[in-house]
Amino acid sequence: LSPAEEKLLAASREMAQAPQQTFGMFENADLKFPNATDSQGNSLPVTQGSFVSHETSEDRVLRKSAYESMYRTLAGFKNTAASLLSAQVKQLQFYATARKYPSSLDAALSRTNVPTEVYLNLIEAVHRNVDKMHRYVSLRKKLLGVDELHFYDIYTPLLSDVDKKIPFAEAKQTVYDA
Prior knowledge:
With about 180 residues, this protein is mostly helical. The chain is built from nine helices and two strands. A two-stranded antiparallel sheet has the order 1-2. A hairpin with a 5-residue loop joins β1 and β2 (about 45). The radius of gyration is 22 Å and the shape is extended.
């Protein structure tokens, strides 16, 4: 765009960040969650920081309680979240249109130099292989010994007493080799 157009868009940036900033304050500072209860009856705090450790616990009662604490609380603010999301979508569409992108997807991908076709192909590859996910879910149910798998069962380790830490350099090399 022309220097004058870019200057105008740059001046609007702080205002346009309001939905994201508001959600960040809401999620990280204002939201308070009820404590979770583990299988021993202990009360444990649920925060953005503790949620992942609760969800990876072997204690299914704790996982369920933490999950319900977080998502019931969030559900109470679904209209606020929807309004913030709507504002964010409008902001992204505004910048995509102003910069003459065919879509907000094209605008978002241009920042990373990922062609839209590559992104769409990735989505299609996932759709073509969803049967593998179904097999994994069946295996997870079997290994966890549950009749019904819930979202709070997704992150707990499948094998107990395995605490393997992989150094970053090793993980990087594994990905590179693959």
